[in-house]
Design brief:
The complex is a heterodimer of chains A (170) and B (716). Chain A is mainly beta and 170 residues long. Chain A is built from one helix and ten strands, in the order αββββββββββ. Chain A has one domain (29-158): Immunoglobulin-like, CATH 2.60.40. The N and C termini of chain A lie far apart (82 Å). Classes of the chains: A mainly beta (170), B mainly beta (716).
């Protein structure tokens, strides 16, 4: 009799808890914000380059302290050495994080001579910068609305004509 | 007549000086041998523990009248008043009594004390719990201890710790009294603990710095290993488990059922005064997370030599070879069981070796000497973009003397020294040294009051950082208001020196850059506790405690606003207050056991008036088990409330970092003992997280999903 009651108790308990939610769940499909585009390379790749990435900073790089991991919001997977054209999509090309909706002040193709993924400013040089509205006088702003994939974030890398370098480089 | 008198004197003195032994077997109500039962003579150091067959033997006992005590967690202690004038054989049966509070612990005062006489809150976990839950990692067992919660590998007793990715610990974990933290990171390598060699685990809640020094600021966990039995014992354990499919199709990254398995082989043999035991464990887990796999070998060797009935030397060595994936956090909530693209394929390799030497000598009836020395070498290497590696050697020696000043006063005095030498590309090549001197006196009065006075001095020097030193005093009271109502209270100061990792880490991993802080200072605490234990009858035990811990110069990971880099800093004046209520009940003639445990934590960063990171406010654990002859079944339920605060800056790196929930975990288990068939064979079946509830302990890390396991234990 007691065993039957215990059995009932367990079954009722399991059914009760089974009726609860499943805890953490995935975000709905298509809900993720992101951006995509193409990077064009012209000129000869320097021999010394060890790494090339597309990077996105939240705030402008006005001083060396702005080059910090908390301002850095996106690093793409490594762009193969010698590429002439590179198509990317942030949702499947993220090195360490997806990007959230919001405004981003500096989008660039950055290259490093160190084989490791360093976050020291001196290890990097900027090979190309994203400009919006054909205005090459200042870096373009990337605006990513909620739940939207922004396309056409294209960048030209001209190794013969590098863009202005942010503070703190060699 | 004179000759007769002389003969009588000679005979009497010969009898008195002769040594005898007591041996026998301890079984439970069903005749099943009970391993790990403490059998000892009250008031002395002589004692033994039963082996796998339930057998024990105590040698070199002088003729006399003694109280012989049989004690093990989960059973009623039995006290026999015996007259020793010849070798005795005593076979004993113990009755189950999970509510019983008179267990013996050695951690609280560094000598054997009854649980009911301690001024602090303590818990015991018998090895049986590890077997019946098919556990291969000690940290999984700790998740069920009242007042304890884990954030991945980081243990927190009553909210003492948040999460700092293995850098430093506020809970001292020891094996047979020898601290088990690493010399570089100061972390606990839970997976290296040889689970099959554990006899019991003792947990002391609250600061124990007055006796154990720096890392015991939040409590102590002491792993007591098995004694080597007199008869040869071979033990084989196999384990096979399978991970269920994830709750959501999006998370099913592998499209297959992942599995895990383990095999342990151990043997022990005694040759007169020399005992040898060894075990080898192989564990493999494909894991439910991509890059969550591990392959592991754990070796354990223990040897003891008994010079006499009162002195012995024990050597143990524990090693682990480990190759594992490096899952730091998820790619995003739609890809919750795979890491970011750049982290895929990254692994870690580690080799760890700890060797310990313990010398025990009962110099006289009043003086007991204990020397503990250890060498702990750790070597690990990240096969990741960071390529971090570290090799550390930690040396430690402690001399402890227990002196029975009178029948009612026992003092424990000791001195210990540590030296750590690190060679790494993440911490540099620093070294550290420290020395601690402690003394504690336990005084019992005729009215049922026990008092504890303790004081410890610590000196610590971390490489180039300015040295620091401090005193940690303690006062404890235990008062038996009546036969079944016990009051306890303790207050003291604690101290924790930063680990080398907290002071000198310099690395970048998965987008997070950590820099050293040579200005780091030790953190300090003031803690107080008041507890009450009420046992109205042998079926019910109620225990309640309130506690208040004040922390100064709390060390936490933080962000340097000047450069945005992570570093460890003395950032917080913190206060952790709370209450704990634990109930144990047994019904149906000890067949049905129920425990209910609730902890309320109010943990605050006082300067910023916010909750401390990674501390739940409510923790509730319950367990029910039912045994009927050779069959047993049980269920364990855990709840803790959603943590209020995490590192906000993690949201910059970890997508969907805000996804945190209350935690509900239900585990089911069953087992059968084939003892009735003449086999020392046990089978256990477990279904963990049977509801397949998805939760996290650490941001971006789904905790173990539903899994099923089967284990077989064979002893011959």
């Amino acid at each position: 009799m007691i065993r039957n009651r215990l059995l009932k108790f367990f079954i009722i308990s399991i059914l009760f808890f089974s009726g609860c939610d499943k805890g953490i769940s995935p975000e709905p499909e298509g809900a993720q914000a992101g951006f995509s585009g193409t990077i064009f390379f012209t000129g000869a790749w320097p021999d010394s380059i060890a790494r090339t990435h597309l990077v996105v900073f939240k705030d402008p790089l006005d001083s060396v302290s702005d080059f910090n991991p908390f301002n850095l919001r996106f690093v793409s997977l490594e762009i193969p050495y010698g590429s002439t054209i590179f198509n990317y999509r942030s949702l499947d090309s993220s090195s360490f994080s997806s990007i959230a909706a919001g405004n981003y002040a500096y989008i660039a193709v950055a290259q490093s001579k160190t084989p490791d993924l360093s976050l020291n400013r001196v290890d990097w040089l900027v090979a190309g910068v994203y400009y919006s509205d054909n205005d090459t006088t200042k870096p373009g702003i990337l605006i990513i609305p909620e739940n939207t994939l922004i396309t056409g974030i294209n960048i030209l890398v001209d190794f013969n004509n590098p863009p202005p370098q942010p503070p703190g480089g060699n | 007549m004179r000759n007769l008198f002389l003969i009588l004197i000679l005979f009497t003195s010969a009898t008195l000086s002769q040594n005898f032994s007591i041996e026998g077997k301890v079984t439970d109500f069903n005749g099943i041998p009970l391993p790990g039962v403490n059998v000892y003579i009250e008031g002395g150091e002589r004692g033994a523990a039963t082996d796998e067959r339930g057998s024990y033997e105590i040698k070199n006992i002088h003729a006399g009248v003694y109280d012989l005590i049989f004690s093990i967690v989960g059973y009623k202690s039995k006290i026999l008043n015996i007259t020793v004038d010849a070798n005795l054989k005593l076979d004993i049966q113990l009755e189950t009594a999970p509510v019983q509070s008179d267990q013996v612990v050695i951690t609280a005062g560094k000598y054997e004390q009854k649980l009911s006489e301690l001024p602090v809150s303590a818990e015991l976990i018998p090895a049986e719990k590890l077997s019946e839950k098919n556990l291969v990692n000690l940290k999984e067992a700790l998740r069920y201890i009242p007042g304890v919660n884990m954030v991945e590998d980081q243990i927190s007793i009553r909210g003492s710790s948040g999460y700092s990715r293995g850098a430093g610990t506020r809970v001292l974990v020891a094996i047979d009294g020898i601290p088990f933290y690493t010399g570089d990171t100061g972390e606990i390598i839970w997976e290296a603990v040889p689970v099959n060699q554990i006899q019991r685990i003792e947990v002391i809640k609250g600061s124990a710095s007055s006796l154990y020094g720096s890392t015991a600021i939040g409590g102590v966990i002491n792993i007591i290993t098995r004694e080597i039995p007199d008869e040869p014992v071979t033990y084989i354990r196999t384990l096979f488990g399978i991970w269920a499919k994830p709750s959501y199709q999006e998370w099913d990254w592998s499209g297959e059922y992942r599995n895990y398995y383990g095999l342990t082989l151990s043997h022990s043999h005694r040759f007169d005064n020399l005992g040898i035991a060894f075990s080898l464990t192989r564990l493999n887990d494909m894991n439910y997370k991509q890059s969550g796999f591990f392959n592991r070998y754990i070796g354990f060797l223990k040897g003891d030599y008994k010079f006499s009935g009162t002195s012995s030397l024990t050597l143990f060595a524990n090693s682990m070879n480990h190759h594992a994936g490096n899952f730091l956090y998820w790619k995003n909530s739609r890809n919750a069981l795979i890491p970011p693209d750049a982290d895929q394929g990254q692994t870690t390799r580690a080799n760890r070796l700890m060797a310990g030497l313990l010398y025990r000598d009962l110099i006289s009836d009043n003086l007991f000497i204990n020397i503990r020395s250890s060498y702990y070498r750790t070597n690990w290497k990240d096969e990741t973009t960071s390529r971090n590696s570290s090799t550390t050697k930690l040396y430690r020696t402690e001399l402890q003397a227990n002196l029975s000043i009178s029948e009612n006063i026992i003092s424990v005095t000791g001195i210990e020294g540590t030296y750590s030498d690190v060679s790494s590309n993440i911490f540099g090549n620093p070294d550290s040294k420290g020395i601690g001197i402690y003394t504690q006196a336990d005084i019992k009065f005729d009215f049922p009051l026990s008092t504890t006075f303790g004081l410890r001095y610590d000196y610590s020097k971390l490489d180039s950082i300015k040295s620091f030193s401090d005193f940690s005093p303690k006062l404890g009271l235990n008062y038996h208001l009546s036969g079944n109502l016990i009051l306890r209270s303790s207050a003291g100061a604690g101290f924790r020196a930063p680990s080398l990792a907290e002071a000198f880490t310099s690395t970048t991993a998965s987008g997070i850059t950590v820099k050293p802080n040579p200005n780091l200072k030790p953190e300090k605490s003031l803690s107080a506790e008041f507890g009450i234990n009420y046992q109205p009858n042998e079926y019910i035990n109620l225990d309640a405690a309130v506690f208040n811990n004040e922390y100064y110069d709390f060390i936490e990971p933080s962000i340097d606003s000047r450069d945005g880099l992570v570093f460890f800093n003395n950032v917080t004046r913190a206060r952790i207050q709370g209450a704990e209520i634990n109930t144990k009940i047994n019904f149906l003639s000890d067949r049905l056991h129920l425990s209910l445990n609730y902890t309320y934590l109010w943990s605050r960063d006082i300067e910023n008036n916010i909750a401390l990171k990674y501390r739940p406010r409510h923790i509730f654990y319950s367990s029910i088990s039912y045994s009927f002859y050779n069959f047993e079944a049980g269920a364990d339920f855990r709840f803790w409330s959603k943590v209020e605060e995490i590192d906000d800056d993690l949201a910059n790196f970890i997508p969907d970092a805000e996804k945190r929930v209350d935690v509900y975990v239900l585990d089911l288990r069953g087992g059968y003992n084939f003892n009735s068939f003449g086999l020392q064979l046990r089978v256990f079946v477990n279904a963990d997280n049977i509801l397949n509830y998805n939760y996290i302990e650490l941001v971006g890390n789904i905790s173990p999903i539903r899994n099923y396991s089967l284990s077989l234990e064979l002893v011959f």
